[in-house]
């Protein structure tokens, strides 16, 4: 039997699929900067990548969810991941603006390099650079600033969006 899917639920699922695609595209952009432009990722950059991956996973969970409860759960987890991405990007901006602050080989790098994904996919999740390294800005903003902007947009889209659920007339 083919049950009719609520149009509002369908729109919401497509929205989460789009969120997943956007996060994977941003992760692809990070890999472009790493391998084509030779801008090595620092520990905080890798943490931002983890946030993107988590948002993509939770977006996919929302896209395949069969009900509103699953979508709401995915929304909360994706928003929390976006907050983590904002924290990593924001702190990286602070480190680059204050040369006396360091994030070279420290607890963060040791933690990031000790994660299993660092060994499974070292091309994506292994620290190779220093946080203080400044690369040329893109349209006047550094890459961490663009990253922060992306996480803010993702967070706001999750926090401010109120899905319109269909009214049941039963």
UniProtKB/TrEMBL annotation:
Q: How does it sit in the membrane?
A: Multi-pass membrane protein
- Which superkingdom is the protein from? Bacteria
From the record, give the transmembrane residue ranges. 16-35, 47-64, 76-94, 138-160
Say if the entry is tagged with keyword Lipoprotein.
no
Q: Which residues lie on this side of the membrane: Cytoplasmic?
A: 1-15, 165-170
Q: Which cysteines in this chain are paired by disulphide bridges?
A: 42-45
* Full protein name: Disulfide bond formation protein B
Species this chain originates from:
Pandoraea cepalis
């Amino acid at each position: 039997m083919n049950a009719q899917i609520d149009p509002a639920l369908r729109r919401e699922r497509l929205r989460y699929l789009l969120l997943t695609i956007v996060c994977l595209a941003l992760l692809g952009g990070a890999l472009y900067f790493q391998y084509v432009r030779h801008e090595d990722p620092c520990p905080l950059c890798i943490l931002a990548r983890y946030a993107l991956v988590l948002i993509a996973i939770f977006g996919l969970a929302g896209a395949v969810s069969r009900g509103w409860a699953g979508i709401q759960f995915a929304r909360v987890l994706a928003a929390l991941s976006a907050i983590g991405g904002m924290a990593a990007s924001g702190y990286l901006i602070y480190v680059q603006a204050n040369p006396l602050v360091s994030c070279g080989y420290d607890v963060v790098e040791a933690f990031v390099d000790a994660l299993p994904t660092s060994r499974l996919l070292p091309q994506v999740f292994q620290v190779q650079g220093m946080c203080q390294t400044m690369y040329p800005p893109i349209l006047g903003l550094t890459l961490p600033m663009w990253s922060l902007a992306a996480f803010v947009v993702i967070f706001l889209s999750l926090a401010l969006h109120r899905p319109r659920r269909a009214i049941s007339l039963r």
